[in-house]
Amino acid sequence: MSGNLEKLESWVLDSTRSDVLRFFDIGFSKTGFVDAERMNWFLHSYVAAQGRLIEDMPKKYAAVATDLDTGREVWFTEGELTDAVRASMALPGLFPAVRNNQRWLVDGSLVNPVPVTVCRALGADIVIAVNLNSGIIGKRNNDRQKPGQKNDQGVLGSIRQQAREYSESIFPAREEKDEAPGLFYAIANSINIVQDRITRSRLAGDPADVLLSPPLADIGMLEFSRAAEAIQQGEECVQKAIAEIRRLTGRSSDTTRQP
Length: 259
Fold this sequence. Notes:
Layout: H1 5-14, H2 17-21, H3 36-46, E1 63-67, E2 73-76, H4 81-88, E3 98-100, E4 103-107, H5 116-121, E5 128-130, H6 154-170, H7 183-205, E6 210-212, H8 227-249
Parallel strand pairs: 5-6
Antiparallel strand pairs: 1-2, 1-4, 3-4
C-alpha cells in the first residue's frame, strides 16, 4: 500500500539470523528486548517513509492497537503510518509499548487478532481475512540443545538464546511432553491461548467472507530465515481459496491477471 512491499519482501528473504539479532538491545531495556531506534530505522526504510500519513494513502487503511491501561481497542485511521504500525505490533515483552495521545499502546492482537470489524467499519463489502493463530495451541517447545549445537557465551550469546526461546515459544516448533515449560513458553503460550479464544469468538460474531489460515505453527516469529517457506504457505493457502474469492468478487481468472 505504501509501495514498499517488494523491498520489504526482498529484505526478509535475504535476511539472516544475525540480521534479526541486531534488533535486540544488548542493554536489556526494561521496556522490551527490541532496540526501538533500530526498529524505527527499519520501518522508515522498508515500510513507509518518515512523515507518510495514513490519510494520504491511496486506499483506506487502519491499524489496531491495545490501550495497555484500559484494555480498549484503538484504531489508527489517521496520523503517521509508521507510528500506527509500531503500536499495532508492540508485542508485550519483546517490543516496547508506544506512547500516543497520552496512552501506552501495545499489540492490537490482544483484543482483536483478526480485525474483520475494522474492515467492515471502513466500508468493505467483502472481507478476506488472514488468521495467523491457526494451530499454535497445544504444541510444546523443546528447549533442549540440538545435536552439534554450540553453547553461546557472554551477553550476546544470552540475547541469542532469549530471542531463540521467545521466537520458538510464540510458534513452538517441537513437542516435548515431559519437559517442564520454560518461562518464555509459559508467558507466550498463555497469550496465544487468549488470542485463539478471542479470534474464535470475534469471528463467530462477525465472520469474514473468506478466511485464510496458512499452516505456520512450526515457524518461529523471529525465524526470518524461513521467510520463503512462510510465503509459499501463504500462496498455497490463497490458491486453495481462489475460486471462492473470484466468485465473491465477480472476477474471472482472466480479469485477475489484468493490472
